[in-house]
Amino acid sequence: MNDIPLAIGIDFGGTSVKIGAVRGSEIIDRAPPIATQDFNNPEELIAAMVRAVEDLRSRHEGIIAIGIGMPGFVNFEKGIVFNLTNVRGWENIPLRDLLSKATGLPVAADNDANCMAFAEWKLGAGKGYNHLVCASLGTGVGGGIIMNGSMARGARFGAGEIGQTSIDYQGRRGHYGNLGALEDYIGNQEITRDALVAYQAAGISKDIEDCSPAALSEAARHGDAIAIERWNLIGRMLATSLMNACWLLNPEALVIGGGVARAGNLVFNPVREHLLKQLSGPFKHGLAILPAAFGHEAGTIGAAALALEAAKI
Amino acid sequence: MNDIPLAIGIDFGGTSVKIGAVRGSEIIDRAPPIATQDFNNPEELIAAMVRAVEDLRSRHEGIIAIGIGMPGFVNFEKGIVFNLTNVRGWENIPLRDLLSKATGLPVAADNDANCMAFAEWKLGAGKGYNHLVCASLGTGVGGGIIMNGSMARGARFGAGEIGQTSIDYQGRRGHYGNLGALEDYIGNQEITRDALVAYQAAGISKDIEDCSPAALSEAARHGDAIAIERWNLIGRMLATSLMNACWLLNPEALVIGGGVARAGNLVFNPVREHLLKQLSGPFKHGLAILPAAFGHEAGTIGAAALALEAAKI
Q: ipTM above 0.90?
């Protein structure tokens, strides 16, 4: 066990920054979470992260690399954060070099969805597959792609944005002006908003908290017809974007995680049904449709694993 | 010039099999086309292809490999044709080994859209790009993907089927039971059928031949409002599938070819407009949207190029 090297994994979220000491797929120790919005600029937040890293290093010998997953666009090769959707001031920050200089350790920085996909590919549900598509369902819908046994990052490190792919060319207008983006139907808040409308249309008065994915999941398990119908629709929409990824990439496996995926069979059953109904032989035969192995720790575990791989250890 | 090796390229279509001797991007000689449907079984058709190959070899010295593009699923690694959509009897045919045994030359067999993409990538509009998506617009809509500087074939050699990707999760039911497939809107015959309906709805009587992509292109150039509207819609639909490929793969370039692409700016302008309107920065900056360099010869040229690469010459 102890011959697996130790690395720091950092899961940088819009609300909090979670930092752990990671061995393989186990987080053996955690620093107290840092509140992202408490800091006025990247420098101060980076300094707080460095203090947390040094704290973990004082308790554990043999930490040899740091990985960090960011909620936005990152130039993985140069370790530069282009910009973050929900955190101000993070534009063109050479995060890798700043962290590396402050700690003396090799650092890898990537998009958070890529970190999650990397965790699932190297250590989780997608282990052993050379052609893999991962989707993470939460407030946003992210993804990561493994092709020919390596991460597909594309020309500018943007690849894997399955949440932005369109399921309807005449659909809702999304964040980037794009029409019919999956995320604008099955993101956390959109699920809630649409469920509220569906209940209202049926003459049923509900509070917004009764319409969260968790509440809808509970309601569906108790036989609530509208909740069941919502999940079937969510599954069908998700299946469309996954199907498109299958036609383009012909993966061996799909790994689906994130908070919304906790609905389990409520969402996996319609996804499976619609994929098998809509894909042809070479695309569906042997296609594994798998729940993610890691929950909210995937980002931390994946960032650490990525750091070790990047450091070629 | 003569230090570029010579190879045979075979473009196996549902109507005819075209065979040429190819040097680089030039077809220096052609065998008479073989009528695909004149043969009762694969063995006889393969024998006819072998005779044509030997005929070309008798006229040209130094032919060192054969490449063949097939209209259906091919196991590229093993050179086996799984099945062809429009040609009977072609199921699990070990085409590569049969052709190789009969000719004594190394043979590569692949899907025809992959051959076209390979021609554009190695010798045509996509030359020099490491991340490339090609689409070919004809009776069917095919495609090929280059990621990280190599062909993306996926787990079972099916990758690149952009024509089957959905632009509407509630859309038309296609060949495989899939809903809203791009091909079911912008395939040759679908363009024609929809245009006929659009003219009828406007109270204008048209013959079916006035509604072919070529006729619609001509009409639009003369200011026909309905024809212009059709091309805008075709461009918008195509842009949706290309956009989805961009979100997933973040390519540097898109290459668009095939008969329908001959409409030129009528289709390229709306494609560009909708892509630039719907993609975010890292996906659209520097994205090249290019017409294919090769027309109907792309398959032959690509098959020959692929054969040389596969033979590692």
A: yes
